[in-house]
Amino acid sequence: MTTAALPEFMIRVFPNSKNPGKPPTKWTPRDELAFYLDPPLEMPPQMPVKISVAFSWDIAEGQRLLRSWKRFYKDVQIGGPALGDPGGEFTPGPFVKPGVVVTSRGCSKSCDFCLVPRREGKIRELQIKDGWNVFDNNLLACSRDHIEMVFDMLRRQSEPILFTGGLDKELLRPWHIDLLKTISLKRAYFACDSKFAFSSLEKAAEFLGDFIREKKYCYVLVNYWLESPQEAEARLVKIFNLGFMPFAMYYRGPLSNHRQSSDPVWRKLIRKWTNPARLKAFMRDSPN
User: Fold this and answer.
1) Contact 11, 50 (CB under 8 A)
2) Mind giving me the DSSP string for 7-53?
3) Which of 74, 80, 217, 243 would staple 53 via disulfide (CB 3.0–4.6 Å)?
4) Digit-coded pLDDT (tens) for 52-105
5) From CA 179, how far away is CA 142, in angstroms rounded?
6) What is the pTM of this model?
7) What are the structural domains of the chain?
8) Are 211 and 185 in contact (CB under 8 A)?
9) CB 240 within 8 A of CB 216
10) Could you tell me which residues come within 8 angstroms of residue 118 by beta carbon, excluding any fewer than 6 positions away?
11) Alpha-carbon distance 111 to 127, whole Å?
Protein backbone atom coordinates (compact mmCIF):
# COMPACT_ATOMS: atom_id res chain seq x y z
CA MET A 1 0.00 0.00 0.00
CA THR A 2 1.30 3.47 -0.87
CA THR A 3 2.76 5.04 2.26
CA ALA A 4 2.88 8.71 1.24
CA ALA A 5 1.50 11.03 3.93
CA LEU A 6 0.42 8.24 6.27
CA PRO A 7 -1.17 9.44 9.51
CA GLU A 8 0.78 8.82 12.71
CA PHE A 9 -2.08 6.77 14.17
CA MET A 10 -4.11 4.45 11.99
CA ILE A 11 -5.72 1.05 12.11
CA ARG A 12 -4.31 -1.51 9.69
CA VAL A 13 -6.31 -4.58 8.70
CA PHE A 14 -4.66 -7.62 7.09
CA PRO A 15 -7.09 -10.20 5.61
CA ASN A 16 -6.24 -13.88 5.82
CA SER A 17 -8.85 -16.09 4.16
CA LYS A 18 -7.02 -19.31 5.05
CA ASN A 19 -6.64 -18.63 8.78
CA PRO A 20 -9.13 -15.87 9.72
CA GLY A 21 -8.01 -13.87 12.71
CA LYS A 22 -4.34 -14.73 12.20
CA PRO A 23 -1.58 -12.65 10.58
CA PRO A 24 -1.28 -13.69 6.91
CA THR A 25 2.55 -13.85 7.00
CA LYS A 26 5.30 -14.00 9.61
CA TRP A 27 6.23 -10.42 8.69
CA THR A 28 2.75 -8.95 9.26
CA PRO A 29 2.67 -6.39 12.11
CA ARG A 30 1.30 -7.52 15.48
CA ASP A 31 0.90 -4.25 17.35
CA GLU A 32 -2.26 -3.03 19.11
CA LEU A 33 -3.58 -1.28 15.98
CA ALA A 34 -3.06 -4.26 13.63
CA PHE A 35 -6.19 -6.37 13.06
CA TYR A 36 -6.98 -9.47 10.96
CA LEU A 37 -10.79 -9.59 11.26
CA ASP A 38 -13.85 -7.39 11.78
CA PRO A 39 -13.85 -4.56 14.35
CA PRO A 40 -13.53 -5.92 17.91
CA LEU A 41 -16.03 -5.28 20.69
CA GLU A 42 -13.67 -2.75 22.27
CA MET A 43 -12.93 -0.66 19.24
CA PRO A 44 -10.09 1.89 18.98
CA PRO A 45 -11.13 5.54 18.73
CA GLN A 46 -12.03 7.09 15.40
CA MET A 47 -8.97 7.16 13.08
CA PRO A 48 -8.11 6.19 9.47
CA VAL A 49 -8.37 2.50 8.60
CA LYS A 50 -6.12 0.96 5.91
CA ILE A 51 -6.88 -2.55 4.65
CA SER A 52 -3.79 -4.09 3.06
CA VAL A 53 -4.24 -7.10 0.75
CA ALA A 54 -1.00 -8.88 -0.09
CA PHE A 55 -2.33 -11.93 -1.96
CA SER A 56 -4.92 -12.28 -4.74
CA TRP A 57 -6.75 -15.09 -2.91
CA ASP A 58 -7.48 -12.66 -0.04
CA ILE A 59 -9.11 -9.96 -2.22
CA ALA A 60 -12.68 -11.13 -1.53
CA GLU A 61 -12.01 -11.19 2.22
CA GLY A 62 -10.45 -7.74 1.98
CA GLN A 63 -13.56 -6.38 0.28
CA ARG A 64 -15.75 -7.95 2.98
CA LEU A 65 -13.63 -6.36 5.70
CA LEU A 66 -13.87 -3.01 3.90
CA ARG A 67 -17.66 -3.13 4.24
CA SER A 68 -17.43 -4.28 7.84
CA TRP A 69 -15.05 -1.54 9.03
CA LYS A 70 -16.96 1.14 7.10
CA ARG A 71 -19.90 0.53 9.42
CA PHE A 72 -17.93 2.09 12.29
CA TYR A 73 -15.18 4.26 10.80
CA LYS A 74 -15.44 7.23 8.44
CA ASP A 75 -12.11 6.90 6.59
CA VAL A 76 -11.60 3.31 5.41
CA GLN A 77 -9.41 2.52 2.38
CA ILE A 78 -8.23 -0.70 0.75
CA GLY A 79 -5.03 -1.33 -1.21
CA GLY A 80 -1.92 -3.44 -1.24
CA PRO A 81 0.11 -5.47 -3.75
CA ALA A 82 -2.79 -7.76 -4.73
CA LEU A 83 -4.79 -4.71 -5.85
CA GLY A 84 -2.02 -3.29 -8.03
CA ASP A 85 -0.55 -0.77 -5.59
CA PRO A 86 2.73 0.43 -7.23
CA GLY A 87 4.25 1.40 -3.87
CA GLY A 88 5.91 4.67 -3.01
CA GLU A 89 8.68 5.58 -0.60
CA PHE A 90 9.03 2.94 2.08
CA THR A 91 8.01 3.75 5.65
CA PRO A 92 9.19 1.18 8.22
CA GLY A 93 6.56 -0.26 10.52
CA PRO A 94 2.96 0.26 9.36
CA PHE A 95 2.56 -2.68 6.98
CA VAL A 96 5.49 -4.94 7.86
CA LYS A 97 7.16 -5.87 11.13
CA PRO A 98 10.16 -3.89 12.42
CA GLY A 99 13.38 -4.96 10.74
CA VAL A 100 11.94 -5.22 7.22
CA VAL A 101 13.29 -2.65 4.77
CA VAL A 102 12.56 -1.87 1.11
CA THR A 103 15.22 0.21 -0.66
CA SER A 104 13.92 -0.11 -4.24
CA ARG A 105 10.71 -0.84 -6.11
CA GLY A 106 10.08 -2.55 -9.43
CA CYS A 107 12.26 -4.80 -11.56
CA SER A 108 14.31 -4.41 -14.72
CA LYS A 109 13.07 -7.76 -16.08
CA SER A 110 9.73 -8.79 -17.56
CA CYS A 111 9.20 -12.44 -16.56
CA ASP A 112 5.77 -13.55 -17.75
CA PHE A 113 4.88 -15.21 -14.42
CA CYS A 114 5.73 -12.14 -12.31
CA LEU A 115 3.43 -9.18 -11.65
CA VAL A 116 6.10 -6.87 -10.21
CA PRO A 117 7.08 -5.04 -13.46
CA ARG A 118 3.42 -4.48 -14.38
CA ARG A 119 2.55 -3.30 -10.86
CA GLU A 120 5.65 -1.29 -9.90
CA GLY A 121 7.36 -0.59 -13.22
CA LYS A 122 11.09 -0.55 -13.85
CA ILE A 123 13.57 -0.38 -11.01
CA ARG A 124 13.25 2.69 -8.76
CA GLU A 125 15.76 3.42 -6.03
CA LEU A 126 14.26 4.70 -2.77
CA GLN A 127 15.59 6.51 0.24
CA ILE A 128 17.44 3.93 2.36
CA LYS A 129 15.96 3.27 5.80
CA ASP A 130 17.43 1.04 8.51
CA GLY A 131 16.50 -2.64 8.66
CA TRP A 132 18.00 -6.10 8.55
CA ASN A 133 15.56 -7.98 6.28
CA VAL A 134 15.79 -6.64 2.71
CA PHE A 135 12.48 -7.08 0.85
CA ASP A 136 13.54 -5.49 -2.48
CA ASN A 137 12.26 -7.33 -5.57
CA ASN A 138 15.60 -6.97 -7.35
CA LEU A 139 18.24 -5.16 -5.31
CA LEU A 140 21.07 -6.16 -7.67
CA ALA A 141 19.38 -4.32 -10.55
CA CYS A 142 20.08 -1.04 -8.71
CA SER A 143 23.12 1.14 -9.30
CA ARG A 144 26.40 0.21 -7.67
CA ASP A 145 26.31 3.36 -5.54
CA HIS A 146 22.86 2.43 -4.20
CA ILE A 147 23.84 -1.17 -3.46
CA GLU A 148 26.99 -0.08 -1.63
CA MET A 149 24.96 2.39 0.46
CA VAL A 150 22.52 -0.42 1.34
CA PHE A 151 25.43 -2.52 2.60
CA ASP A 152 26.76 0.46 4.57
CA MET A 153 23.36 0.50 6.30
CA LEU A 154 23.33 -3.27 6.82
CA ARG A 155 26.72 -3.19 8.56
CA ARG A 156 25.16 -0.96 11.24
CA GLN A 157 22.48 -3.51 12.16
CA SER A 158 22.62 -5.57 15.35
CA GLU A 159 20.65 -8.46 13.77
CA PRO A 160 21.96 -10.97 11.18
CA ILE A 161 20.97 -9.96 7.66
CA LEU A 162 18.26 -11.57 5.50
CA PHE A 163 17.66 -10.98 1.79
CA THR A 164 14.11 -12.33 1.75
CA GLY A 165 13.21 -10.43 -1.42
CA GLY A 166 15.92 -12.35 -3.25
CA LEU A 167 19.17 -11.65 -5.06
CA ASP A 168 19.18 -12.03 -8.84
CA LYS A 169 21.58 -14.85 -9.73
CA GLU A 170 22.00 -13.52 -13.29
CA LEU A 171 23.20 -10.14 -12.00
CA LEU A 172 25.48 -11.54 -9.28
CA ARG A 173 29.08 -10.37 -9.66
CA PRO A 174 32.29 -10.85 -7.64
CA TRP A 175 31.99 -7.40 -6.08
CA HIS A 176 28.59 -8.39 -4.67
CA ILE A 177 30.27 -11.38 -3.01
CA ASP A 178 32.85 -9.06 -1.48
CA LEU A 179 30.03 -6.99 -0.01
CA LEU A 180 28.22 -10.07 1.33
CA LYS A 181 31.37 -11.01 3.20
CA THR A 182 31.34 -7.67 5.05
CA ILE A 183 28.02 -8.33 6.81
CA SER A 184 26.68 -10.88 9.27
CA LEU A 185 24.66 -12.84 6.71
CA LYS A 186 21.89 -15.06 8.02
CA ARG A 187 20.31 -16.05 4.71
CA ALA A 188 20.17 -14.90 1.10
CA TYR A 189 17.48 -16.12 -1.30
CA PHE A 190 18.00 -16.71 -4.99
CA ALA A 191 15.58 -18.17 -7.57
CA CYS A 192 15.46 -20.93 -10.16
CA ASP A 193 12.06 -20.66 -11.81
CA SER A 194 12.45 -23.26 -14.56
CA LYS A 195 14.88 -25.88 -15.87
CA PHE A 196 16.21 -23.26 -18.27
CA ALA A 197 17.48 -21.14 -15.36
CA PHE A 198 19.75 -23.82 -13.91
CA SER A 199 22.91 -22.82 -15.79
CA SER A 200 22.90 -19.31 -14.30
CA LEU A 201 22.35 -20.82 -10.84
CA GLU A 202 25.43 -23.00 -11.40
CA LYS A 203 27.47 -19.86 -12.11
CA ALA A 204 26.10 -18.21 -8.97
CA ALA A 205 27.03 -21.33 -6.97
CA GLU A 206 30.65 -20.86 -8.04
CA PHE A 207 30.63 -17.27 -6.75
CA LEU A 208 28.99 -18.36 -3.48
CA GLY A 209 31.30 -21.26 -2.73
CA ASP A 210 32.55 -19.74 0.54
CA PHE A 211 29.02 -19.66 2.04
CA ILE A 212 27.44 -22.71 3.70
CA ARG A 213 24.21 -24.19 2.37
CA GLU A 214 22.10 -22.87 5.29
CA LYS A 215 22.90 -19.31 4.16
CA LYS A 216 21.89 -19.95 0.54
CA TYR A 217 18.17 -20.56 -0.07
CA CYS A 218 16.59 -20.77 -3.49
CA TYR A 219 12.98 -20.04 -4.43
CA VAL A 220 11.94 -22.73 -6.91
CA LEU A 221 8.82 -22.13 -8.99
CA VAL A 222 7.13 -25.49 -9.66
CA ASN A 223 4.19 -26.45 -11.90
CA TYR A 224 5.42 -23.95 -14.50
CA TRP A 225 5.93 -24.87 -18.18
CA LEU A 226 3.58 -27.87 -17.68
CA GLU A 227 6.04 -29.44 -15.26
CA SER A 228 5.03 -32.69 -13.54
CA PRO A 229 5.52 -33.24 -9.78
CA GLN A 230 8.21 -35.81 -10.58
CA GLU A 231 10.10 -33.36 -12.80
CA ALA A 232 9.78 -30.66 -10.15
CA GLU A 233 11.18 -32.87 -7.40
CA ALA A 234 14.10 -33.90 -9.60
CA ARG A 235 14.88 -30.21 -10.13
CA LEU A 236 14.59 -29.49 -6.39
CA VAL A 237 17.05 -32.29 -5.59
CA LYS A 238 19.41 -31.01 -8.29
CA ILE A 239 19.35 -27.54 -6.76
CA PHE A 240 19.93 -29.01 -3.31
CA ASN A 241 22.95 -30.91 -4.61
CA LEU A 242 24.27 -27.66 -6.08
CA GLY A 243 24.58 -26.34 -2.53
CA PHE A 244 21.30 -24.44 -2.00
CA MET A 245 18.34 -25.03 0.32
CA PRO A 246 15.39 -25.17 -2.15
CA PHE A 247 12.07 -23.55 -1.22
CA ALA A 248 9.25 -24.69 -3.51
CA MET A 249 6.68 -22.16 -4.70
CA TYR A 250 3.62 -23.53 -6.51
CA TYR A 251 2.71 -21.64 -9.69
CA ARG A 252 -1.02 -20.89 -9.69
CA GLY A 253 -1.26 -18.78 -12.81
CA PRO A 254 -1.68 -15.00 -13.08
CA LEU A 255 -4.07 -13.42 -10.56
CA SER A 256 -5.16 -16.80 -9.22
CA ASN A 257 -7.70 -16.84 -6.41
CA HIS A 258 -6.45 -20.23 -5.24
CA ARG A 259 -3.83 -20.31 -2.51
CA GLN A 260 -2.54 -23.78 -3.38
CA SER A 261 -3.16 -26.83 -5.55
CA SER A 262 -6.01 -29.22 -4.86
CA ASP A 263 -3.87 -32.08 -6.22
CA PRO A 264 -2.66 -34.21 -3.26
CA VAL A 265 0.60 -35.06 -5.08
CA TRP A 266 1.50 -31.41 -5.50
CA ARG A 267 0.41 -30.61 -1.94
CA LYS A 268 2.66 -33.34 -0.54
CA LEU A 269 5.62 -32.09 -2.57
CA ILE A 270 5.09 -28.49 -1.45
CA ARG A 271 4.85 -29.51 2.22
CA LYS A 272 8.12 -31.41 1.93
CA TRP A 273 10.06 -28.69 0.16
CA THR A 274 8.87 -25.75 2.29
CA ASN A 275 9.54 -27.42 5.65
CA PRO A 276 12.98 -26.54 7.08
CA ALA A 277 13.00 -29.56 9.40
CA ARG A 278 12.37 -31.93 6.48
CA LEU A 279 15.02 -30.17 4.41
CA LYS A 280 17.54 -30.60 7.21
CA ALA A 281 16.66 -34.30 7.46
CA PHE A 282 17.14 -34.56 3.70
CA MET A 283 20.52 -32.86 4.10
CA ARG A 284 21.59 -35.37 6.76
CA ASP A 285 20.61 -38.30 4.55
CA SER A 286 22.14 -36.87 1.37
CA PRO A 287 25.52 -38.29 0.30
CA ASN A 288 26.47 -34.78 -0.83
Assistant:
1) yes
2) -SS-EEE---SSSTTS-SSTTS--STTEESSSPPSSPPPS--EEEE-
3) 80
4) 999 989 999 999 999 999 999 999 999 999 898 888 899 998 999 999 999 999
5) 14
6) 0.87
7) 11-82 (no CATH), 86-285 (3.80.30)
8) yes
9) no
10) none
11) 26
